[in-house]
Amino acid sequence: MHNTTALFAHTVRPYSRLSRLTFFRPTRRHNLYKLREGRNMKPETFAHVVSNVLYEKRFGPYYAEPVVAGLDPVTGEPFITGMDLIGAMAPTTNFVVCGNNEESLFGVCESMYKENLEPEELFEVIAQCLLAGVNRDCLSGWGGVVHVISKDKLITRTLKGRMD
Question: Do residues 98 and 67 lie in contact, with contact meaning Cβ atoms separated by under 8 Å?
């Protein structure tokens, strides 16, 4: 395994997270869009670009399950979506899980997530969900990195889990 980040910050607002092995770097298409349009992509637009790229490669796929999250630059509304290997989007308003521990994380996240949490409260909920899910599946790793996007800042913290 490699120890590189799979989080791509395309602008201040949209972020994408790629899980599993991938060689797809979405920043190139974002830069081409910025040159052509003279503005940054909205998170929804970026999600559609990533979805189209994955669908183009459906017969020789990138082994990635992207999560695109961001805030609309005009309204500040949050956007989050997950995708499968061929780019089928599943936009939602609360949370997205992906990776090899999906099943364990769904139950934990559904029981702990609440609407309208402050950034620090949201971080605590995410951290507890992630550590509880990791403890249920020994193949999912020894911790994680939590990113919380708010209107004025990005909070990034590394969690250490059990190593037994």
Answer: yes
- What are the beta bridge partners of residue 80? 69, 92
Q: What is the mean pLDDT of residues 12-18?
A: 54
Task: Give residue limits of the domains in the chain.
Answer: 1-99, 100-164
- From CA 54, how far away is CA 65, in angstroms rounded? 10
Q: Which residues contact 116 (CB under 8 A, 6 or more apart)?
A: none
Domain 1-99 CATH (choose: 3.40.50.10420, 3.10.290.10, 3.60.20.10, 3.30.710.10): 3.60.20.10
Question: Could you tell me where the DSSP H helices lie in the chain?
Answer: 27-37, 43-56, 102-112, 119-136
Per-residue pLDDT tens over the stretch 74-118: 888 999 999 988 889 999 999 998 877 888 888 889 999 999 999
pTM over 0.90: no
Q: Is 103 helix (H, G, I), strand (E, B) or coil?
A: helix
